[in-house]
Amino acid sequence: MNTVKIGGVPEHFNLPWHMGIEDQSFSNKDINLEWVEYPGGTGAMCEALRNEEIDMAIILTEGIIKDIIAGNPSRIVQKYIQTPLIWGIHVGAQSKYTSLLELEHTKAAISRYGSGSHLMAYANAQDQNWETSDLKFELVNNLNGAIEALTNDNADYFMWEHFTTKPLVDKGIFRRIADFPTPWPCFVIVVREKVLDAMPDTIKTILDTINTSTSDFKHIPSIDKTLAYRYDQQLVDIRKWLQLTEWSQSQIQLDTLDTIQNYLHKVQIIDTKIDSKKLIFDL
To answer: I need a labelling partner for 109 at 20 to 30 A (CA). Which of 55, 121, 162, 194 fits?
Structure first.
């Protein structure tokens, strides 16, 4: 049995992987798929891929593109979520700030440098015509660190997935003052090059298995209630999220990668662009 370690964030997008592991969809095909949780998000997973701590990851598209260009020896093998990620822009419950315009020249909490919360702070600043060179950051590692930073005024705002942070808004820990959707498919599946060379058939089987699961996922009876229970969400929020979210079973298109690279270069997240064919691997 081949063991493959896969990383992902502890969010509702990834329930199909957990269900597949629990119902032995992978082990029945002689694959020991080990899930490794990364509350720190994309930056933490990029580091884990580089350090060979995991073999593959479900990761933010813009984050892994940036890191592959910077030398991460991994490749995108498939889109995972076709639809955009909606980044909520949050302040602490007692914050003096009430609008997005007021956040210019303030400090953003980020999980890690190179993480989605870091990259999207730049993208949001560009969208608002702020001077990106003036951006200031407070490193908080994860969502719990962001709660502490915003509550203690060590940072002023924090960008994280809208529905993941909704319970914190409901409890009066955060206030969400705006949303910022990414204009591209938000999550991709990425695999280290060494793993692709060593076990391409195993990776192909993993993809075939998860694609079968995600193609039917929204039609599973009471899946909305399962998601709400497992991720501490209100049922009405999960139903809205399900309406907005589409899983993918195909490779990301080269023109989409070109568009993302152009955007990242424009907002100075990457210094150089590469041939988008070098970002992907087709199994």
So the answer is: 55
Quick one: which of 185, 183, 43, 83 has its CA closest to 126?
183
CA of residue 247 relative to chain centroid, distance:
14
In contact, 194 and 53? CB cutoff 8 Å: no
CA nearest to 72, candidates 279, 213, 281: 279
- As a whole number of angstroms, the distance between CA 272 and CA 283 comes to 27
Convert the pLDDT of each residue in 241-271 to its tens digit.
999 999 999 999 999 999 999 989 987 889 9
CA distances from 28 to 21, 58, 209, 239, 266 (A): 10, 22, 11, 31, 46
CA distance 7 to 12: 14
Neighbouring residues of 168: CB distance < 8 A, sequence distance ≥ 6:
90, 143, 147, 174
Judge whether 188 and 79 are in contact, CB under 8 Å: yes
Over residues 5-58, the pLDDT tens digits come to 999 999 999 999 999 999 999 999 999 999 999 998 999 999 999 999 999 999
Beta bridge partners of 23: none
Q: Residue holding tokens 């280290």?
A: 192
Q: Is residue 252 within 8 Å of 76, Cβ to Cβ?
A: yes
Neighbours of 266 (CB within 10 A): 11
266 three-class SS? helix
The answer to whether residue 148 scores a pLDDT higher than 90 is yes
Q: What is the DSSP letter of 85?
A: P
Q: Is the pTM of this model over 0.85?
A: yes
Measured CA distances, 269 to 63, 118, 183, 282 (Å): 10, 10, 16, 26
Confidence band for 113, pLDDT divided at 50, 70 and 90: confident
Please state, in angstroms and as integers, the Cα–Cα distance from residue 46 to each residue in 42, 58, 68, 71, 239, following that order.
Answer: 6, 10, 9, 10, 31
